C-alpha cells in the first residue's frame, strides 16, 4: 500500500513554479560550481578580467566562422588566456574567496604580486612555442635549447598550480606521478620498468611537441568545446531552456510524481544544449527541486533525482560535454556517427531514472500535476518558437557534414540575432557582452585541466606505459576468469567472455574512482589513453570501448565522496550531501548495466560494426526489461509493495537479462514469472480497497 494517503490534500503548485529565472540560476551555479566561482575582485580588476573573457570569446567566435589559425598558434593563444586569467580569478587558497579586497603596493588591483607574476610567467611560457618558426621548431624537437627547457619547466609548474586552483589537487597529483614514472623508469618494478627520461627530455616531449601540453585534449577544448559551451550559454539566455521545461511538463507532469518526471525530461532536453552536470542541475533544479519537495518527496530524494537526471546531459547528443569532440579526434569518425551512437545509451540512462522515480511515486502515493498547474504548450510555442531556430540550424549543419565549430558559429550567431530581435527575453548589446563573458568563464577550469591531462598523455606516449597497464589488466582478468570458470557448469560461459567481463568490471571501477577526483572530460581522456587499448586487446571495437570508459567516467558526478552534481543539488534542497549522493548513485545504477550491454551487443550503439536489427531488438528489449527489474528491486515496488524475495529475484534477473548469453537471458525471464504472478494477484486484491 502507498505510504502516503492518496486522498490527503496535497499542496497546489502554481504554473509559474516552473518558470526559469536566469539570474537566480546563474547565482546558484556560481555558488555550487567551484570551477566558475571567482574570488571577489576590485572594480578595475573586474573590468579587466571581464574584458579579457569577452576578448577570448570573440577570438573563438571569429576563428570558428572565418578560419582557425595554425594548430600550435590557436592552442597557444587559447592556453595563454586561460592560464593568465586563472591566476587573476582563482585565489591561492579557499580563504581568498572571503578575503576583503585590498588595493596596495603588494596587491595591485586587489591581486597579489605573486599571482600577477604567475599570470605573466604563464603567458610568456605558453606563447614561446607558437612564436618559434615552424622549421626551427622541427629542428629543436629532440634538441631543445636552454631557453626551451627553462620556459617548458616554468609552464609545467604554473600549469599544475593553475589546475590545482581551478579543479583541485587530484589531477595535478596524477600528472606528477606520471612525470615521476617517466623520470625514474629504471627503478620501476617488473613489467613497468623502462629506460627513463631526463628532465630536459621530458620537457622537450611535453612542451615542444603536440603529444603533451599542446596535445589533442587542449586542441579539442580550444577548437570545439569552447564554441558549444558559448552556444549553450546564449541558447539558455534567449529562453530555449524555458521552452524545454514547458515541453517536459506537458509530456510528463500529469503522471504520478509529476515534478520529478518533469525534472528527468527537462534535464534530458536541457542536456542537449548544456554539457555540464552542475549547470544542468542548478538551472533545472532551481525549479523542479522545490516543486518536488512541496509535492511530498523527501529533500534528499528530490535533490538526487535532479542530480542523476542532470548527469545524463553529458551523454545526451548533440553536445555531450567534450566527449563527442574528443572521440572525433581519437577515433577519426564523423561527428554524426558519434551522436547517433550516443542516442540509445542516453535514452537508457533517463529510462532507468524514470522507472525508479515512477515506482517511488507509486509507493508513496504522490500525484501528478493538475490541469491548472500545467503549462499551456501552444502558448509556450507561440511565445518562444524563435528560440528553437538556432538549435535546429546547428543540428542541420552538423548533419550536413560541416565542421562542428562552423555549426556552433551559426548557432551562436542566430542566438544573438534571436535575442536582439525577439520581444520576449530581448537582449541588449550589454547582455551579449555578458553572455560572451560568462561563456568564457567555463573555459578556464576545463582548459587548465585539458592541458594538464596532456602531461599524462605525453608520458604514456613517451614511455609506452599504456600497453604495459593493458597487459597487467588483461592478465589479471584472465586469471580471475579461469578461477571462476572452474565453478561454472561446462559450456555456460567461454573463458574469453569471462576475461572480457572481469576486464570491464575492473575498468569501470577505475573510471569511477578516477572521476571522483578529476573532471569527467579529463577522466575520459586519461581512460581513453590507458583503458580503451586494454579493451581493444580483447576484441572490443574502439567506438564501443571509448563509449564504455566515458559512460562510466560520468558516473563520478553522482558517486560519493566527490559527487559534484549531487552536492550542488543537496545544497539547493537543504539536504544531507552524502545521503543525496548515495541516493543519486542508486538512481543511476541502471546506467551501470548499460555499458556492459553495448560491449557484448554493439548493435545497441546503432553505428557499431556488425549492426543488425535482430541483435539490436534483442539487446534493446533485454536492457529495457533488465533496467525495469533493477528499478523495481531497488525501489521495493512493481505493481504493489515488493517482498524481500521478490526484490532479490528481480535484482538477479536484471543482471542475467543484460548478460551476453541466451541461456542467462532466458533464466532471467524465468525468475520474473513468480514475481509477476504474486504482484498481479496482490494488485487485484488491493484494487477494490483502493477504489
UniProtKB/TrEMBL annotation:
Q: Which residues cross the membrane?
A: 45-64, 76-93, 105-129, 141-160, 167-184, 212-235, 335-357, 388-421, 441-462, 469-492, 550-571, 592-611, 617-638, 650-677
Could you tell me which InterPro entries the record lists for this protein?
DctM (IPR010656), TRAP_DctM-Dct_fused (IPR011853)
Query: Which cellular compartments is it found in?
Result: Cell inner membrane
The UniProt regions of compositional bias labelled Basic and acidic residues, in chain numbering, are: 1-12
Q: Which UniProt keywords apply?
A: Cell inner membrane, Cell membrane, Membrane, Transmembrane, Transmembrane helix, Transport
Q: What is its main location?
A: membrane
Annotated region (Disordered), positions in chain: 1-20
GO CC, sorted alphabetically, is: plasma membrane
Per UniProt, what is one Pfam family of this protein?
DctM
* Keyword Cell membrane attached: yes
Annotated TRAP C4-dicarboxylate transport system permease DctM subunit domain residues:
155-608
A GO term, aspect molecular function: transmembrane transporter activity
Membrane topology listed for this record: Multi-pass membrane protein
The role this protein plays is: Part of the tripartite ATP-independent periplasmic (TRAP) transport system.
* UniProt protein name: C4-dicarboxylate ABC transporter permease
